Amino acid sequence: MRTLEQQSDVSRRDILKTLGGLAGAATLPEARLFGQNTGSANPRRIDVHHHHRPPSSGRGGEGRGGAPWTPERSLEQMDKYGIAVALVSLTQQADLLYDGTEEGRTFARSVNDYGAKMTHDYPKRFGLLACLPLPQVDASLKEIEYALDTLDADGIGVYTSIGDKYLGDPALAPVFEELNRRKAKIFIHPIPPKCCHDLVPGISDYATELDFDMTRTVTSLLVNGTLVRHRDLTFICAHSGGTLPVLAGRIRDRFPKDKMEMAPLGVIPELQRLYFEVAHAAFPYPLTALMKFVPSRQIMFGTDYPAEPIESTVVPLEAAGLSKEALYDINRGTAERLFPRFKV
Ligand SMILES: [Zn+2]
């Protein structure tokens, strides 16, 4: 196991190489970046941010009004872009999943059963990040047991916020305690937060609020002690961590002095224990910030398909001029270490 200092050395080496490439990429017009070839050798990527659309979700097509989604449509896209494995999770449906009723519990079960069928039908191509009917704690504990013991899910997917609550909320403590006992991998996916709809008329919440909600929930996990109490949990933050890498220094400087026991390594090193994926956030600007923040050994590939076209991640990632080692880590190396059943 490498120390944080050793990891920072790796990080610095990666950054120097990365910045060399990114500096060039940053001067290219965006249209040209997106027009580049997506590469030749098959990188056998592992996509940790990929959505299924179970019939019970009532959601249908790709993107906005595209072709109907099916597991086979995912496989076709995965083959096209050199993606060997996709770990599927539920797209943004907090209204139904987190409604606090029997309906939410039934929905969670149907979504997880559907995902498990995909992993059963295509065991080498799909993994499952099961959903939980939060904020219902007892029902979520039952679903954790069912998903991890009966369905053999690879991990758990949660949204950044549950109504007014963020993930560090003390009411959710039993859920994280149980997930920690099981050394679970937890994928944190953003949703438009309840607090902040339509703050700026004319700009979609999806353009700005998702990335802020990621930062809110990570600070909630930190300040409430979830990160320090549960050292066996692995959190994976979507979309290059949203605004977290950029705001980390300000979070450190404004962190409450009477809560420093929640960050025994220091605020920044505690945040640098997190993992990240780069779906729709491999543009030069967020990728540079992320790779300054953590080494490539903590960064994974993701696409957000079918909500986003896969090119929107693959093309800027390949144009970023990353070192071969860093690109391998992101494409599959990091995910292979976290989810060893996909190791080849
Ligand atoms: Zn997504």
Descriptive overview:
- The chain is an alpha/beta fold and 344 residues long.
- 46% of the residues lie in helices and 13% in strands.
- It has 14 helices and ten strands.
- The strands form two sheets. The protein has an eight-stranded parallel β-sheet with strand order 1-2-3-4-7-8-9-10. The protein has a two-stranded antiparallel sheet with strand order 5-6.
- Helix 6 (137-150) packs parallel to helix 7 (173-181).
- The longest helix is centred in the first third of the chain and has 23 residues, at 4-26.
- The protein is globular.
- Zinc ion is lined by residues 49, 51, 91, 189, 304, 307.
Trace the largest sheet across and list its strands.
1-2-3-4-7-8-9-10
Spatial shape: globular
What are the low-pLDDT stretches, counting only 5+ consecutive residues below 50? 1-40
Largest sheet: 8 strands, parallel
* Small molecules in complex: zinc ion
Number of helices: 14
Distance between the termini: 22 Å
Radius of gyration: 19 Å
Topology (elements, then pairings):
Blueprint: H1 4-26, H2 30-35, E1 45-52, H3 71-80, E2 83-90, H4 94-97, H5 102-121, E3 126-131, H6 137-150, E4 155-159, E5 161-162, E6 165-166, H7 173-181, E7 185-189, H8 205-223, H9 226-229, E8 234-237, H10 244-253, H11 267-271, E9 275-277, H12 284-293, E10 299-300, H13 311-319, H14 324-338
Helix pairs in contact: 1-12, 5-6, 6-7
The structure holds zinc ion (ZN).
Zinc ion binds next to strand 1.
